[in-house]
Amino acid sequence: MALMITDDCINCDVCEPECPNNAISQGEEIYEIDPNKCTECVGHYDEPQCQQVCPVDCIPHNPDIVESHDQLMTKFIRLTQK
């Protein structure tokens, strides 16, 4: 499943540069994750890097976008072939 950023985000700017897929961007009020680009770092790292660096732990899994590891890997391949 893709990750999401909750309203607890403090706009500290540490997650955006850590995303290898450029899925994180500044939204109107807080940072946002594009679920079409988020692979939870599958294909790049063992753990989602944004979750690792977030100081307020505001990046949970998005319950509305459930994806298997295989689906995330397929998305990674699609994104990296462009």
From TrEMBL:
Residues 1-29, 31-64 form the 4Fe-4S ferredoxin-type domain. The keyword Membrane does not apply. Coiled coil: none annotated. It holds the Pfam family Fer4_7. Gene3D superfamilies: 3.30.70.20. The keyword GTP-binding does not apply. Keywords: 4Fe-4S, Iron, Iron-sulfur, Metal-binding. It comes from the Bacteria. PANTHER family: PHOTOSYSTEM I IRON-SULFUR CENTER, PHOTOSYSTEM I IRON-SULFUR CENTER-RELATED. NCBIfam families: di_4Fe-4S_YfhL. This is YfhL family 4Fe-4S dicluster ferredoxin.
